[in-house]
Amino acid sequence: MSGTADLRDSYDVAVIGAGPAGMVAAAICAGAGLSTVLLDEQAAPGGQIYRAVGETPVRRPAVLGNDYWHGERLVRALRASTAHYVPGATVWSLSREREIGVSIAGGARLVQARRVIIATGALERPFPIPGWTLPGVMTAGAAQILLKSSGMIPQGRTVLAGSGPLLWLLAWQYLNAGAKLDAILDTTPRANRKAAWPHAAAFLLSPYFRKGLRLLLSVRRRVRVVAEVGDLRAEGEGKLQTVAYRVGDGVETRLSADILLLHQGVVPNVNLAMSVGIAHRWDEDQLCWTPVVDGFGGTAVDGVAIAGDGAGIAGAWAAEERGKLAALAAVRALKPDARREQLPDEMQVRLALAQVERGRLFLDRLYRPADRFRLPEGDTLVCRCEEVSARQIVETVALGCTGPNQMKAFLRCGMGPCQGRLCGLTVTELIARARGVSPAEVGRYRLRPPVKPITLGELAVLPKSEAAIKAVVRG
Amino acid sequence: MFRRLPDAGEARLAVTIDGKPARARAGDSVAATLLAAGVDHCRTTPVSGAPRAPYCMMGVCFECLVTIDGVGNRQGCMVPVEDGMAIEIQHGRREIER
Amino acid sequence: MNATTSHDVAVIGGGLVGSAIAWGLAKAGQRVAVLDEGDIAWRASRGNFALVWVQSKGLGMPQYAGWTVRSSNAWGGFAEALKAQTGLDVCHQRPGGFHLALSERELEQREAMLKRLHNQPAMQRYDWEIVDRERLRRMLPQIGPEVVGASYCPLDGHVNSLRLLRALHVGMRQLGVAYLPNHAVDAIAWRDGEFTIQSSGGAVRSGKLVLAAGNGNARLGPMVGLAVPVRPQRGQIVVTERTAPFLNYPVVTVRQTDEGGVMLGDSLEEAGFDATVGTGVVSAIADRAVRMFPLLARLNVVRTWAALRVMTPDGFPIYDHSATCPGAFVATCHSGVTLAANHALALAPLIAEGRLPPEQLEVFSARRFDVPAAA
């Protein structure tokens, strides 16, 4: 793996994240003659959706499915471009002047860019049920990463629980791979169907419809599916032993289990964007914070754009198109004389985007996670790092604490190494419910660099001005 | 907890987990190596001492913190495993010497 | 809260200064309302370094040194009282503290400054000393080769300042204080011995008024005949992951918290109302910390932040009582942690009685800034 020495001091364009949006954007910018760096935290390009697509040990293509292998084309295009792709590069800061702090193999440095495209994608929505911190409980996305990058499948009694396309896709891939699944506990509320129905027509025209339906039916034929699960707990001494659930308000059923894989949708990975001061709005359809961007992913921070799911969840195909749009804006700004034939046609991109975004609202409504699974109660941990419970949050609201930043000061929630990635949404929503106001009014954690850990040693050797040194020396 | 698919290639790398020899496959992360080796938990928390295991596998949850080659609190899911690595369970707060 | 409710005292500001005073007022039997802003506000109380610090304070105003020593001495009892009432341990510790020097020149400057401080007339006597490298190593074994020595004062200590803020809020609640968040103050009127405070959350009336709004006091003071010349001064802080205990004493810019994180401070920057973190300053903080304790280089940084100190022109606190609106007080300082014990136990009872005795507190009046500059 290369180190920071291979990086230049400055680039025309820096793209952060090598998922579909980042790969496409970097290849286009480089193709237009802009000096382009693509910084990615993983060891290989693809992001999470195409994780390890170039080197997965899963040899049979049918296991992971055609949509996964599509990622190979994007990786090839990236590799064929002159973009400087840097794996193992952790971006820990971005300033409003577009100075990027990046660490590679334990060494940090600063890189300047005229344009920055943030393509940091999505992460799984927190699923705070009792026992979700027990060993043996992990996310469906984590399990899928183990499959893609290591060819690993569950051994022992395995339960999938939650809601949303990824849960079904994982089940399908597992069955293809020969894994045995004990049950799928579907937590999708029945009422969601009614809410989604008005948007069904649009979804019928979506490319996701036929594929999704086929996959769903295929899984249902082979695994026991329990619908309308309204209550879910993981139990065990030191590790998962039992999954307890109820259908609706019915009697509790207990399953012995070694592995519980949870999923209830994905949300934008906003930490870097928030830390540079990009405005975010509460998205009531997707129940998350979404950055405020224009039609090219541009933000109010000069020269900084967001592409892909980090700009609002729309899926991998949309991410590609949004990557193209962000790249187009960068090229137009920095190289207005770039030859048109080197660039994607904006109209075509927008048509393609409209096509793949069709039916999104149907999916959002259908798979909207139930309140019960977003708003925990009692001793259920909200902040995994600092072990702060739902009860503590609610009691502290009663003390007069109105928002997540004061909550953080009082209880330390969000102060651990994950920096609120796994508790931020829950804390905001819990405060909102306790106060009887909207999450938008409650607000969110204020985030500051470093958004990923960096050692003090790395930080200490970065360049600093005389004024900065003088500011910290005391007589 | 997890097993490798037959076509996933051989685990040729030799590592130690808390001093005991284990095998790892080139291309795996340290966290995947621990899961493949059947390790129950990779750390205990600095707050209550509760056991935790890898949760997200993509670098966001910090549950897979382990000591690698004497350096504490490293994200196991973000570190590619290497031959000869000494992996240790992280017990609570790290120590400044390691 | 509707305008018909009248309180004995309204405290504007729910940070450490306002909360400590409100807690003390409630203990003294006053019916208190605290008007605070919302979740996003300039809150030094969430961004401070949490030292209870004595050494080096008071050069230019020996009475401030005395006031600080008094608070430091009262802190143990204050922490006990909070724990007894709320069950929350604010982890106050007073092992003495160090100020490390990274060169002979720094050490000489340090010693000269402390001598000037202690040679002031009317300076309260307390122990301090310069410690050479050999002795220092026995107390702080992890110091790096560049550390030549330190100043030490046994009165210095530290506390968990976020838990202090929480304990004060829990304590206020238990004492019946009306805590009113989202009450940003727009205007204050005084008539017939009563204050009417217009805020974003409605009007509040009270017999007395305490301005404890930090940098907001500059705007609020003139509404009740008080000049409060304060300005923001930025400080940036770095904190590491939790680490097993290794540092037994607080150092003025390096301390290990009870939770295990190592806090590294802190910058002094004139940046107006801008709490942006800058990589250069944070790097300079890290550099000095690593030179003091080289093993720190291995630790991961989990957070950095910037907060705004509340600075007066001479750096000393302002405690004042309005001449034109009797019953209106102001309390402002940049040492809300160190002075919390005084604010709760000494200042609040005086405000409850309605006067600041000149022999004690006249020196802290903002009238000291009215003196025309010498020709």
UniProtKB/TrEMBL annotation, chain B:
SUPFAM superfamilies: 2Fe-2S ferredoxin-like (SSF54292). Coiled coil: none annotated. This is (2Fe-2S)-binding protein. It comes from Vineibacter terrae. It comes from the Bacteria. Keywords: Oxidoreductase. Signal peptide: none annotated. GO terms for molecular function: iron-sulfur cluster binding; oxidoreductase activity. The keyword Metal-binding does not apply.
UniProtKB/TrEMBL annotation, chain C:
It comes from the Bacteria. One of its GO terms (molecular function) is oxidoreductase activity. Keywords: Oxidoreductase. SUPFAM superfamilies: FAD-linked reductases, C-terminal domain (SSF54373), FAD/NAD(P)-binding domain (SSF51905). It holds the Pfam family DAO. Residues 8-348 form the FAD dependent oxidoreductase domain. InterPro entries: FAD-dep_OxRdtase (IPR006076), FAD/NAD-bd_sf (IPR036188). One of its GO terms (cellular component) is cytoplasm. This is FAD-binding oxidoreductase. It comes from Vineibacter terrae.
